[in-house]
Recover the amino acids of this structure.
């Protein structure tokens, strides 16, 4: 985050920039890429990086997430303390490009067919999994397909449907309340402006950005629990409040990247970079990660920690996008089926 280390950090950062964070077209990190062309510089880079107070030497081994373990040669990652803003921007964008290759099918993991369904599903996703919401909303939207229907619903009947999502009484109030607000204030349409969305019951900035990004194509950063954890592990920011994280990360990327960046980061957090046991040994961006080693580094043990399609399991959506299915992803089972 700060300026370059005066005691040699410049050279290291320069070498690192070449070796690890070159801002060229996106390429998958592979053993070949990280070793073949950079061999003469590699030793010096690692040596210099070790001399830095908090230099991080990335993994001795890592693997692509689904494929069998592929060794990745060590690459020096500049100490974020000695990393210039330019170097941070390049490293952050490089990570995003790598993630785009790992998750070319990244998407919102809530099932929805229109903006009304998305805003309701996002409100319901508080304190539960997207899977549980996806298993619950088919019954809700079958009975109440429009804001007008849900606005006049019997709360007890809605509570019964929403029970599996937890906090079902509060959620019932929110979705009936927001439906009423949509009918009374917006002609039964979901508004496409942040300032209008956040006035709806149960809708905060996070929900609003999900809706803006995925139903209106307006760029937004979704700072959920995964996003917060990963950007801190990558030392993209030291901020801890969602609004400040959103601003700090927004400054590292062009606006047009914000929505897909959010999906990439959240996909990675759900599949590989878990809260308690990150699967570092199976992480394709390990060579770029200052937190490598926080989790399991043995490739075989790490591979067993992978979730959803990366672990060969069903995803969260009952109706995932075709790109997800084409990549070998499986739909989630309906409620009660698993
Ligand atoms: S902490 Fe581990 S799993 Fe997470 S991004 Fe870094 S290397 Fe990958």
């Amino acid at each position: 985050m700060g300026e370059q280390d005066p005691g040699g950090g410049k050279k290291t950062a320069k070498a690192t920039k070449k070796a690890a964070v070159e801002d060229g077209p996106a390429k998958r990190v592979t053993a070949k890429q990280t070793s073949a062309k950079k061999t003469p510089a590699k030793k010096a880079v690692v040596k210099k990086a070790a001399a830095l107070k908090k230099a991080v030497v990335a993994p001795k081994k890592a693997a692509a997430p689904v494929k069998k373990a592929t060794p990745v040669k060590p690459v020096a990652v500049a100490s974020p303390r000695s990393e210039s803003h330019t170097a941070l921007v390049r490293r952050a964008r490089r990570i995003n490009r790598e993630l785009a290759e790992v998750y070319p099918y990244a998407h919102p993991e809530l099932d929805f067919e229109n903006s009304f369904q998305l805003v309701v599903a996002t409100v319901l996703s508080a304190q539960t999994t997207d899977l549980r919401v996806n298993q619950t909303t088919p019954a809700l939207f079958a009975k109440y397909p429009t804001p007008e229907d849900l606005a006049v619903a019997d709360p007890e009947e809605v509570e019964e449907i929403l029970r599996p999502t937890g906090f079902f009484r509060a959620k019932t109030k929110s979705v009936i309340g927001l439906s009423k607000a949509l009918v009374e204030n917006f002609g039964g349409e979901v508004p496409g402006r942040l300032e209008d969305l956040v006035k709806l019951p149960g809708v905060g900035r996070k929900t609003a950005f999900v809706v803006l990004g995925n139903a209106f194509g307006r760029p937004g950063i979704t700072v959920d629990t995964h996003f917060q954890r990963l950007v801190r592990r990558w030392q993209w920011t030291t901020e801890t409040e969602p609004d400040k994280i959103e601003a700090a990360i927004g400054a590292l990327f062009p606006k047009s990247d914000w929505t897909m960046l959010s999906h990439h980061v959240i996909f990675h957090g759900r599949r590989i970079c878990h809260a308690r046991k990150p699967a570092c040994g199976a992480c394709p961006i390990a060579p770029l990660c200052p937190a490598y080693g926080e989790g399991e580094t043995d490739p075989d043990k790490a591979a067993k920690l992978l979730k959803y399609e990366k672990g060969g399991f069903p995803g969260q959506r009952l109706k995932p996008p075709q790109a997800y299915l084409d990549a070998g992803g499986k739909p989630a089972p309906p409620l009660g089926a698993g």
